[in-house]
Amino acid sequence: MDVDSETVSKGEEEQRKAIVLILVGAPGSGKSTFCDHVMQVSTRPWVRICQDTIGNGKSGTKTQCLMSATSALKDGKSVFIDRCNLDREQRADFVKLGGPQVDLHAVVLDLPAKLCISRSVKRTGHEGKLQGGKAAAVVNRMLQKKELPKLSEGFSRITFCQNETDVQAAISTYSALGSLDTLPSGCFGQKNPDAKIQLGIMKFLKKVDAPVNAGSVATSSQDSVAKELWNKGLESDSSSSANAGKDGGDLAVGSVVATATLDDIPTLAFPSISTADFQFNLEKASDIIVAKVEEFVNKLGNARLVLVDLSHGSKILSLVRAKAAQKNIDSSKFLTFVGDITCLYSGGGLQCNVIANAANWRLKPGGGGVNAAIFSAAGPALDIATKERAGSLIPGKALVVPLPSTSPLFSREGVTHVIHVVGPNMNPQRPNCLNNDYIKGCKVLREAYSSLFEGFASIVRSHTKLSKESSKKLGSALLESHDHFEQSHMNQFSNNDQKVKREGVYESERNKKCKGLQDELGSDITDSTDVKDKLNSKKINGSITTAWGSWAQALYHVAMQPERHKEDVIEISDDVVVLNDLYPKAQRHLLVLARSEGLDRLADVHKEHLQLLRTMHDVGLKWAEKFLSEDESLIFRLGYHSAPSMRQLHLHVISQDFNSKHLKNKKHWNSFNSAFFRDSVDIIEEISKHGKATLRDEDSLLSVELRCHRCRSAHPNIPRLKSHISNCRAPFPASLLQNDRLVCAPSKDGINQ
After folding, report:
1. Alpha helices, H only, 463-552
2. DSSP code of 730?
3. Residue finishing a domain among 159, 188, 217
4. CB–CB of 129/88 below 8 Å?
C-alpha cells in the first residue's frame, strides 16, 4: 500500500473534509494501538472515541460515543471509532455519521485469531478490563459472529489488514494524511470477500461441535484454541511485556495456554545451566539438554518442561529447539520460552509451579544472572528456606526448596518450589574451573540435569496419588486445602463472575446429581470413579460415611506419612502435621492436619478427641502468633469446614485480608465467611458439652449471596467484593469479636480497623 499513489491532494482552496474511520476487529487486534500511532504523527486533527473510556475515563454507552463523535465533527476534527464493530448492526449508527462533508472509512484488522487471543490474555491494565483467562472465550465468541463491512453499508473506503505488514501500511497511509488530503474510494486488501470466520478459528470450533463420547473430554472453544497453541510448542516472546497492556507488538502465542486453561499442569521452568557465567560450550550444552529432556519427558506423565532464556535471539534456545525437533520430542511436554524466569506468569502468562535456579556452590544470593534475579524476586524467604536445607551444593547436584507463601514469587507467580542446581564451570574467573576438561564437564552437566529433573519428578509425585497404571497421568491434585478442586481449572467467562464454564468431565452423560457435584467441586474431575466415589455417601446409624475419591486422599497420605512429603510440610509432631495451603485464599493460609486414623472430618470427632482438637488449636494459634510478630496488621481466624471435600480432619489458619488470586468464586468466599466455617473455639466447646459438633447444610450456605465479612454489605461478584474489602475498615460483626474467634496483635484488641 503506497501512500504516495493513493493520497490525492485537493488543494488549499477546497474545504477540508473530515473522516469517520470505523475500526473493525476483535479484542487484541490492535485497534487502540492503530489510533495511537496515527494520532502521534498525523497533522490532521483526530479524536479517538472509545466506549471503554467515554464516561470520564470509565465505560460508557454507545449514545455517549455518538454524541462525542458528532461534537468532534462539528469542530472540524476527524474521528476514530474504536470499538469492535464486528457486525453490521454494531456499525449502523456510526455509519450515519457520514455525509457530504464527512468521508466514511473502515479499517478491518482481520488478524489471526491466535494472535488476538494471545494479546488479549496477556495484556494487563486494559481499559475495558478484557484480559486474562476469560479473554480467550470472549474473542472466540465474537469472531464467530463476525460480519465484514461492505461498501453498500455506506462506506466510501474499506481497507482490509490480514497481517502486521498490512496494518503498518494502513497506519502509514492515515498518518500521512494532511488536513486537506483525501483517499480514493473502494476496497483495498480483501482476499476472500465471502469469509465470515477465519479458517483457523473454524477448525477449533469444529472440535467443540463434535459429539462428546463416553470417555472423551468435553472442551470449550476457548480450550480448543488454547490447547492447539500449546501443542504447537511455540516459543513465546514474553520479553515484549512492555506491550502487554496494548494491542501492539507481535507477541507469540505460547503464553496463552498457561493463563487460559493449562495452569493446572505441573510445569518446570529452567534456564540453560552453565552456559552464561560458567561459559560452557553451547553446542555441547544443547546436546545434553535435549538428551536429558528426551530421557525424562515421558517419565513425568503430563507434566511439562520449559527451557527459558531472556533473549529472543538466544542461541541456546535456537539450538535446543532444532535438536528437539530432530528427536521428535513431544512439543506438548517440552518447549522453549523467551522471558524473565522470575515473572513468567505476570509478564508472559505462563504458569510454572516450579522454577530452577542456576545457583552458585555456596547457595548464596547475588553474583548476577539468574541466581541474583531469583533470590531478589523471591525475597528473604527463599534465602532462609535454602539455609534450613543446605549450606552448599557441589556441581552436578540439585536441591529442592519449598517456597514459603510469604515469598512474592509464591503469591504473585504461583511458584511453589525452587530447585537450586549447580553446573560445571569453564570460566577461569569463577571458582572450581575445569580448564576446558569437557569430558568431566559433560559428565557433571548430565548429572546436573538428571538431578534437576529428578527433583521435579519428586515434587510431582508428592502432590499426586500415583499408581503404576496411572503414573503417566499426573494431575494438579497438589497438597492444599480441602477446596483445591473448587478452583484449580476455573475459567471465569462472564463479567458477573457467576457463570462458570467447566471442562474435562469424563462422562458420556451428566445427570443432575453429577452436575451438582461438579458445581460443588468447581473443577475438572479427571476420573469418573472420583465422581462416583464422591457421590457414594450415605447415612449409617445417623452418621455420614463417604467413599473418598483418589484425589481427595492427598491430605490423608501427608498426615499418615509426612516423612515422604518433607518438601511440603513445615512442622511434624506425633499428633499433627502443618503445611501451607498451596492455593491460599489469603495472604497467610495454612493447614493443621490431625494424624489420627478414622478422623476424616468433623462428623467423626467425639469427646475422646478433645485433647487432639486442643492440640490442633494450640498449634494453629502458635503459627498465627508467629505471623503476627512479622506483620501486626494481620487478623486471623482458626476453624474447620462443615463438610470438607478432602479426607483427613484439618484446621484452617487463615488471615482475614482474603487477598489472594486463588479466591475466585462464591463457594471459595462462603466456605470461609458463612456458618459453613466453624470456629475452632466453638467446636471445642460443642464437643466438650454435647460430644459432637453442629454441622450445617452445605449447599444452602455455599450459595448465599456475597457479603463483606466486616460490614456485611452485599456485592454482585468476586471482583467487586475484593475491591470493597481491600478498603473496608468497618468493625467485625459482634459474633466474631466474642470468645476469641479472631486472633490479632495485642495493639488491635478492638479490631476496628
Report:
1. 512-521, 528-535
2. P
3. 188
4. no
Give the pLDDT band of residue 222 (cuts 50, 70, 90): very low
Beta-sheet strand order (sheet of 304-309): 236-237, 334-338, 304-309, 267-271, 354-358, 417-421, 398-402
Structural Rg of the chain based on CA atoms:
29
Are both 683 and 558 inside the same structural domain?
A: yes
Query: CB-based contacts of 153: which residues, under 8 Å, 6+ apart?
Result: 88, 91, 92, 95
Nearest to 418 by CA among 473, 373, 483: 373
- 428 dihedral zone (left: phi>0; alpha: psi -120 to 50; beta): alpha
Count: domains in the chain: 3
- 417 has catalytic annotation: no
Report if residue 198 sits inside a domain. no
228 part of a folded domain: no
How many other C-beta atoms can be found within 10 angstroms of the C-beta atom of residue 291? 14
Q: Which of 105, 126, 463, 650 is catalytic?
A: 650
Asked if residue 507 lies in contact with residue 471, where contact means CB atoms within 8 angstroms, the answer is no
Backbone angles phi, psi at 688, to 5 degrees: -65, -40
496 class by beta-carbon count within 10 Å (0-12 exposed, 13-18 middle, 19+ buried):
exposed
Check residue 454 and give its pLDDT.
92
Same domain as 314, residue 181: no
226 found inside a domain: no
Residue-number span of the structural domain to which 64 is assigned = 18-188
Cα-based distances in Å from 595 to 3, 6, 190, 578, 709: 76, 79, 69, 10, 32
Cell (9 digits) for 280: 560452557
Domain CATH for 63: 3.40.50.300
Mean pLDDT of the chain: 76
Q: Using one digit for the tens of pLDDT, what is the confidence trace for 310-360? A: 887 789 998 999 999 898 898 888 988 888 899 888 777 778 989 999 998
Please report, as a single letter, which amino acid is at residue 738.
Q
Grid cell listed for 69: 463523535
Mean pLDDT of 518-540: 35
Q: What is the DSSP string of 702-723?
A: HTSPEE-TTT--EESSHHHHHH
What's the CATH number where 562 sits? 3.30.428.10
3-state secondary structure at position 363: coil
Same domain, 272 and 363: yes
Helix locations, 548-648, DSSP H: 554-560, 610-630
| Contacts (Cβ under 8 Å, ≥6 apart) of 240 | 249, 250, 251
CATH of the domain at 413: 3.40.220
Q: Are 159 and 282 within one domain?
A: no
Q: Return d(Cα 488, Cα 479) in angstroms, integer.
A: 12
Whether residue 241 has pLDDT greater than 50: no
- The pTM (predicted TM-score) of the whole model is 0.38
Q: Which residues of 84-106 are buried (b: 16+ CB within 10 A; e: fewer)?
A: bbbeeebbeebbebbeeebbbbb
Residue 26 belongs to a domain = yes
For residues 181 and 283, state if they share a domain. no
Chosen domain end from 424, 439, 463: 463
Residues 155 and 292 in one domain: no
Same domain, yes or no, for 281 and 180? no
Q: Is residue 42 located within the same domain as residue 135?
A: yes
In whole angstroms, what is the distance from residue 263 CA to residue 18 CA? Answer: 48
